[in-house]
Amino acid sequence: MTIKNTAENYGSIAKWFHWLTAVFFLASYCTVYYRHWFTEEKTPENWIALQLHLSVGISIAVIVTLRIIWRVINRVPDLEPGTSLEHGMAHVGHYSLYAIMIIMPVTGYIGTGVDTEFYMLFDIPKFESTQLFTTIVSDGLGMTFKEFEKPVDFIHKDIMGVWVVWLLIAGHASAALYHQFVKKDRTLSKMTNGK
Ligand code: HEM
Ligand code: HEM
What we know:
By secondary structure, the chain is mainly α. The protein is built from 6 helices and 2 strands; from the N terminus they run αααββααα. The protein has a single domain (12-190), classed as Up-down Bundle (Fumarate Reductase Cytochrome B subunit), CATH 1.20.950. The protein has helices at residues 12-38, 44-72, 84-110, 131-141, 145-183, 187-190; strands at residues 116-118, 122-124. β1 and β2 form a beta hairpin.
């Protein structure tokens, strides 16, 4: 397996980025819904589940930054033969997935009113304590954190988290299975064993 992508296959680095992101997305949902469904407010478990959600989300931000740099300096494998509509949908799908990998960590971070205890190792200050918040939100928009947090949370949770993100990922994973079992082409193997 090569490190870089080729015309036929994703290389090992792109595969690591891809599957690591998939695991972290799953972890971001498990942590936040574990908190909602299985913990009582103001208990240590509730706090730890929240902190794990924040840490996982910030990890996704780091991974997607490195992933985008790697994609820019690397070729993308060719799509399998298909109609221009299918290819167009694949491109729109992939760019939308990149968009959620950026929008979710950003809205999560700027809309959270507590510091992130990054895997309990060190603290990352909340957005409200940063100079960027003072310059853009307090001085620029003239808003308090409470006023700013509301629409940002609405995007993070009610629009993206509850609907858009998982529907996009489900559509993407279903497309991969459609290629594997209906079209029987190499789409999934490009991202797995390369055969
Ligand atoms: C790709 C990354 C992320 C995904 C997929 C994600 C997804 C979600 C989802 C599904 C929810 C629950 C929505 C609901 O109320 O039903 C949520 C809530 C939340 N997220 Fe994220 N999130 C991500 C990153 C982040 C980051 C980086 C932070 C902050 C540093 C953050 C902070 C929060 C907070 C504070 C809540 C509310 C927690 C609660 O209601 O228990 N998220 N997120
Ligand atoms: C079970 C889950 C998943 C499966 C089976 C899967 C499968 C695949 C496959 C087969 C490809 C190659 C498509 C092609 O070259 O035409 C791909 C690419 C891609 N996947 Fe996934 N994926 C999954 C989860 C995810 C998740 C959770 C994300 C992000 C939130 C994601 C984002 C992407 C992106 C952005 C690409 C395009 C990569 C590029 O060209 O830079 N995938 N996926």
